[in-house]
Amino acid sequence: MSRKSTEGSTSEARARLLGTAVRIFYAEGIHSVGVDRIIEEAQVTRATLYRHFSGKEDLVLAYLEQADQGIRAQLSAAQDGAHTPGDKVRAVGRAIAEGIRSEGFRGCAFLNAVAEYPDPAHPIHQAVLAHRQWFLDTVTELLANVGDAPAEAAGRHFVMLRDGAMAAGCLSDPGLITETFLESVEGILQARSTAHAAD
Asked: Where is the HTH tetR-type domain positioned along the sequence (predicted)?
């Protein structure tokens, strides 16, 4: 077998392992899923898993990294068609709402993970905090372009609204939840625009 085909099968096996872990961890939780289940469903050997990941924790970190990259790409794409600062914030809100309304939605992967890893020093907990800091920084920067007032409180408000919508969206009617969430995002924008106009 050539080196190229070996590398191809290696990356294919890793992708299959990670894809399986992503699907099961999100649907069923992390602690409830053992590596044997992932090995079986990914149709790889135990040696293959440990060739790509040092253990379950490493696999969970890769799962969260993939989720982080997916959300970054989703929010970036959502803003592409938006022309005004307010429309960029609305586009981010709509992207979040679409996720909540999607089939198989089970809440925020990061909030779910941190509930299973409450120790602030744990690498998985740290990965969640890093993602959330990026998200807070991103929405705060977007909101800073709407009006002149400092945007830190508005950014925290947006994140809290998003967290609540994510939690409620898998417990009750996601249509009503996302409608309320988007109305609240509009309220943040109006408050910033009103403050700007008053100045």
From this structure: 11-71
Per-residue tokens: 102:
């999607």
- Please say whether the beta carbons of 69 and 82 come within 8 A: no
Assign residue 44 a region: left if phi > 0, alpha if psi is -120 to 50, beta otherwise? beta
Q: 83 and 146: one domain? A: yes
Instruction: Give Cα separations from 118 to 12, 33, 103, 113, 129 (angstroms).
Output: 33, 18, 28, 9, 11
Query: The domain spanning residue 2 has which CATH number?
Result: 1.10.10.60
Contact 74, 91 (CB under 8 A): no
Residue 123 sits at the vertex; the CA angle it makes with 47 and 156, to the nearest 5 degrees, is 135
Instruction: Find the domain containing 20 and state its range.
Output: 1-53
**Tens place of pLDDT per residue across the chain (199 aa):** 333 333 455 689 999 999 999 999 999 999 999 999 999 999 999 999 999 999 999 999 999 999 999 999 999 999 998 999 999 999 999 999 999 999 999 999 999 999 999 999 999 999 999 999 999 999 999 999 999 899 999 999 999 999 999 999 999 999 999 999 999 999 999 999 886 554 4
